[in-house]
Design brief:
alpha+beta; Alpha-Beta Plaits; 8 strands; 2 domains
């Protein structure tokens, strides 16, 4: 059995694509996923499964939501080891001290032609970023709410992404670790 983490994009934001977590947990359990747990309303789910690939599980989950709620969100499924590897590769360990300033954007695939030079031009003096494989790291000590770089990351990478701050990533990894016990 393998532990997986599903990251949902664009749910429960601004009154759109409402997806109650209690219902989601029940629906995913009915699909045969095991020990389904969720963390906060933005769509972070930890579960175990006997079979399936990341892509097949993502499709299965998105289809289930469409059948029950009328919309098919983008779902990125990663195994817990991949998320742990992303944390281990964090190029900005000092950002952990203020976990809401350190952001991980998990990418659908490795960008073929990321526009890193344009990103460099957009970043403020306090922002730092680095692309490592299928993870885009950004440390924004002044926040990302008004960051021009944060607003354009996905477009400039040219691939679908979903972001989480370090606090959320650490919590879902903790949940995944507990499910392994």
């Amino acid at each position: 059995m393998k532990t997986w983490i599903a990251l949902f994009r664009g749910i429960n934001v601004g009154g759109n694509h409402i997806l109650p977590m209690a219902e989601l947990r029940q629906e995913l359990s009915a699909l045969g996923l095991i020990e389904v747990q969720s963390y906060i309303q933005s769509g972070n789910v930890v579960f175990t499964a006997k079979t399936g690939s990341a892509a097949s599980l993502a499709k299965k989950i998105s289809t289930c939501i469409e059948e029950h709620h009328g919309f098919a969100p983008q779902v990125l499924v990663l195994d817990a080891a991949a998320v742990q590897a992303a944390v281990d590769a964090n190029p900005f360990p000092d950002g952990i001290a203020a976990p809401n300033t350190l952001h991980f954007s998990f990418l659908e695939k490795e960008p073929a032609k990321p526009k890193l030079e344009e990103m460099e031009e957009l970043r403020t003096h306090s922002e730092r970023f680095q692309l490592i494989g299928k993870v885009f790291y950004m440390h924004a000590p002044d926040g990302i709410g008004r960051s021009k770089l944060a607003a354009k990351v996905e477009k400039l990478l040219g691939v679908a992404a979903t972001g989480r701050n370090y606090r959320t990533v650490a919590k879902i990894l903790s949940m995944a670790d507990e499910s392994l016990r």
